[in-house]
Amino acid sequence: MQRSTTTKPPILQAAARAAIADAGRDLDVKAQQRALWALGDYHRFATHTVWELGPLLVRACGISTGQRVLDVAAGTGNVAIRAAEAGAQVVALDLTPENLEAGRRAARERGVELEWVEADAEALPFGDGGFDVVTSCVGAIFAADHRAVADELVRVCRPGGTIGMVNFTPEGLAGEFFELFGRYAPPPPPGALSPVLWGSEAYVRELFGDRLARLELSRSSYVERSPGDPAAYCDFFKQTFGPVVGLYAALADRPDERAALDRDFLDFATRANTAPPDRPAEYRYEYLLVVGRRR
Ligand SMILES: C[S@@+](CC[C@H](N)C(=O)[O-])C[C@H]1O[C@@H](n2cnc3c(N)ncnc32)[C@H](O)[C@@H]1O
Fold first, then answer.
1. Whole-angstrom Cα distance, residue 33 to residue 95?
2. 191 alpha carbon – ligand 1 mean position (Å)
3. Pocket around ligand 1: residues whose beta carbon is below 6 Å from it?
4. DSSP state of 196
């Protein structure tokens, strides 16, 4: 099914603002983002959904022993831990300290060492050209200013180095997911762009321009498996995925809207389920794999 490719209100900014306002706190946009991603249990979420994408990006970028790797919007180490396991010297950067802390614990359990840095993808705290490989797996796409992110990824990568990303596509299931939640969230701050724009080939080519000598773009998909039926898939998101936890919290005193969101979410999860009837629900998400060589 063809889905909308227009810019939708980013659920993240909007849900964050609503949740934080409900909590009576007065935080700036970055602090709202950070607070939102700290809700739920991102490590539990990631290890049950996107965890296979980390090693995929490590392989696609040819990460190997001794390389200096920066993983941007690293979450709890999906790419970063795998890159360290491949022998690279890795910096994992994220806006949300709670995710970095969970990543530290996961790295310790796996017996690898890497550096964890709290910072913003739009303003990386590193000098020019310091990394052989710069990656981001469904991460930097959530920063509001896409051009600033692209500029920073290029700036910190050395000439001849590699930039690799995994980005949700607007036509895939994530496009529909964010559109659904965006309908219930207040408008995002001015200038904030939809994360799924990063899944369009033309958009990525335009953002990086001629700063990448070679840019390979390929679409593929991965499958998320529910712990049970479609309702269990919704519950899993409502317990673990910060932006969804935040939006439901923001609707706590609006029971009609909350019930309508529940109905739409379950409808989405029922329609999008690709598993046979008596099996746990499954969801196929399309992504754009981006691998470029810095000029
Ligand atoms: C969907 S998670 C992806 C995490 C990880 N890359 C993975 O594959 O599991 C998105 C992450 O982006 C981070 N994030 C959002 N906006 C950011 C920003 N402006 N700068 C740095 N990190 C950001 C969040 O804190 C969160 O950890």
1. 8
2. 19
3. 33, 37, 42, 46, 50, 54, 73-75, 78, 94-96, 99, 120-122, 137-139, 142-143
4. G
Sequence letter at residue 205: R
pLDDT (tens digit per residue) in 183-207: 998 788 788 899 999 999 999 999 9
Q: How many residues does the chain have?
A: 295
pLDDT tens digit string along 78-133? 999 999 999 999 999 999 999 999 999 999 999 999 999 999 999 999 999 999 99
Dist. CA 232 → ligand 1 center (Å): 24
Please state, in angstroms and rounded to a whole number, the distance separating the CA atoms of residues 232 and 159: 47
Q: Return the sign of the alpha-carbon dihedral for residues 269, 275, 280, 282.
A: negative
Burial class (CB in 10 A: 0-12, 13-18, 19+), 52: exposed
Find all residues with CB under 8 Å of 273, minimum gap 6, and list them: 226, 230, 233, 281, 282, 283
Token pair of 27, please?
């935080």
203's enclosing H/E stretch is helix 201-208
Whole-Å CA distances, 273 to 75, 118, 240: 26, 36, 20
Q: What is the C-alpha to C-alpha distance for residues 293 and 11, in angstroms, rounded to an integer? A: 32
Residue 183 to residue 9: CA distance in whole angstroms: 8
The three-state DSSP-derived secondary structure of 58-94 is HHHCCCCCCCEEEEECCCCCCCHHHHHHCCCEEEEEE
Write the DSSP string, 277-295.
TTS--EEEEEEEEEEEEE-
